[in-house]
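SEQUENCE-TO-STRUCTURE ENTRY
===========================

Subject: a protein chain together with a token-level encoding of how that chain folds.

Sequence line: the amino acid chain in single-letter code, read from start to end.

Question of interest: how does this chain fold, as expressed in backbone structure tokens?
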Amino acid sequence: MDAFLVYPATLVLIAMNVIASVYAFSNPDFFDRYCFWIAPIRQGEEWHRFVTSAFLHVNGLHLFINMYVLFMFGQILEQYVGSGGFLILYGASLLGGNLWEYADKHNQPGYRAVGASGATSGVITGFCLFFPFTTLYLFFAIPMWAIVFGIGFIVGSFILSQRDQTMVAHGAHLGGALTGLVIAMLLRPAAWRQMLEQVANRIG
């Protein structure tokens, strides 16, 4: 109960993702109706898919990874910018990721994707902006500052998004990450200057 009072938006988003995804695992018609699918978006103007697809996942592992990221970073970010600010950042990153992917894949009518990765990518870059020298562990083993992780994530997503064939929506990661960074700076306008000051102090 205490956790719900401190970061309710994070927990509600996790619950929504889990409920929708688990239901879709055994209901392919539901999955097809709400996934990110270029053909029905372009031909049927089913714009709701830009949002609904972000609450569906391919399997349990896909769901677990995104929800783990959301829980670990979301609870800290929500306490820092407030529940309303966090929901704005999450929602904008969700849309930014899918809009980027739509712009990139709009000529591929059969392209389909699901997952909260665009939204969680924005949560990650927002965290990296606010807490640039927090130590994160890549693959749970390689320590690095959050600012290094964030830059590497954006650059890596851009490079991987250029591949013609990929099972991962790297374009959504990139769009979500960049959107989250912009929204974070709008929520806390002084954050960019503060980060630069921290970098200058570290460099000496």
Summary: Residues 155 and 174 are 8 Å apart (CA to CA).
